[in-house]
Amino acid sequence: MAQRHAGVTEAKYRNDSVGSMPRGSDVAAARMRTLAVGFPAQLRAGFDLGRDLASGVPRSSGSAIVAGMGGSAIAADLVRSVSDPETELALDTVRGPNLPAHVGSRTIVLLASYSGNTWETLSAYDDAGRRGASRIAIASGGELSRRAEHDHVPLLVVPEGIPPRSALGYMLGGLLGLLDAFFPESNERRIARTAEHLERRQTEFASATGPPARLARRTGARLPYVYASSEVSSVARRWATQIEENAKRLAHADMLPELLHNAIIAWDAVSRAHAPRASVILLDPIGAAGAASAGAQYLDRLLHRRGILVDRVRFPDEDRLVAIAEAVSFGDHFSLFLAHGAQVDPMEVRAIDRMKRTLRTPG
């Protein structure tokens, strides 16, 4: 059975990058910041491992599904933001135990579960096997790894002991490596350029005076609404889920131009009393044009008239992968600075642990 392991590669963390931390959470916060800074190295390592296993991906297939939950699924959404405009591969994400009816012997099913014990992904694994689909597993261990080894299913092993949301680089790079043959040319050099670009930004992103920290101070205790164009809406979703898990506060994500056909009505009706409680963050690729850009400009003007705090966070768009990776990295650091400002432990996820103990595994 083909199997590849990723080594733990974490960038060095400087304790003075975020200033003083609340006692009891400073070690956890430092650990999360280290993992955020290590995102570029994870991306490189994951891609190399995925490329090494790519021979197990049938190139004759035109459709692929990534089955996963939470941090294991968002990587597939990010990959799709690149693969949809650049390849003929029909890629979809399944967040649940049930695969679509069309899945069969000509479908590639990639099962992604960081822990390897996510019951929804295990159910999808068995379902894909019954249907004769080509399976590939991505996990740090657990039951998914055990089943893949038993069934001789290719397995990409990522380092254990990391919060699933902080292993995104391994997952994203791994999926891009596994699906590399579907792109017009290999992404090997592209991944290297992306990682080099991100590495140059990490000192700034992790600094208490950098853009993510300044945005966190401006946002304060407001409810953040994160908006992006439909082509990169997965980035807005990543920002929202990172804010929810790391900063322990609600966040909302939506896409342009879709929200101009529904949410804009609510924004236009915002009361003076509610306006100071919300903030809107527009993720805005530099040089973007077309309906989404025009819609963002219109929304920006409307929100300002209603007294809503608006921030436009801009990223390069010469290469969509670079833009997506930079926006993700910025958002990860932003969520950690929100956690720091609220004096909460960004690593703690007891609510999820309680849910798992209560619900157990169906059946």
Write the layout of secondary structure elements.
Blueprint: E1 3-5, H1 26-37, H2 39-53, E2 63-67, H3 71-86, E3 90-94, E4 107-112, H4 119-130, E5 134-139, H5 142-151, E6 155-157, H6 168-178, H7 188-205, H8 211-219, E7 223-229, H9 233-246, E8 252-256, H10 263-268, E9 278-285, H11 291-305, E10 309-315, H12 320-342, H13 350-359
Question: How would you describe this structure to a colleague?
Answer:
With 363 residues, this protein is of the alpha/beta class. The protein has helices spanning 26-37, 39-53, 71-86, 119-130, 142-151, 168-178, 188-205, 211-219, 233-246, 263-268, 291-305, 320-342, 350-359; strands at 3-5, 63-67, 90-94, 107-112, 134-139, 155-157, 223-229, 252-256, 278-285, 309-315. The protein has a six-stranded parallel β-sheet, sandwiched between helices. A four-stranded parallel β-sheet has the order 8-7-9-10, with helices on both faces. Helix 5 (142-151) links the parallel strand 5 and strand 6. Helix 2 runs antiparallel to helix 7 and helix 3 packs antiparallel against helix 9 (233-246).
Class from helix and strand fractions = alpha/beta
Give the strand order, joined by hyphens, for the main sheet.
Answer: 1-6-5-4-2-3
Low-pLDDT runs of 5+ residues are 7-22
Kindly estimate the percentage of residues that lie in beta strands according to DSSP: 15-25%
How does the overall form come out from the CA principal axes?
globular
Radius of gyration: 20 Å
**CATH H-level name of the largest domain... which superfamily?**
Glucose-6-phosphate isomerase like protein, domain 1
Query: What would CATH call the class of the largest domain?
Result: Alpha Beta
Number of domains: 2
Quote the CATH topology of the largest domain.
Rossmann fold
Give the rounded overall mean pLDDT.
90
For the termini, the CA-CA separation is 29 Å
Give the beta-strand count. 10
Work out the helicity level.
40-55%
Largest sheet: 6 strands, parallel
State the order of secondary-structure elements, H for helix, E for strand. EHHEHEEHEHEHHHEHEHEHEHH
Oligomer: single chain
Number of helices: 13
Second rung of CATH, namely the architecture of the largest domain? 3-Layer(aba) Sandwich
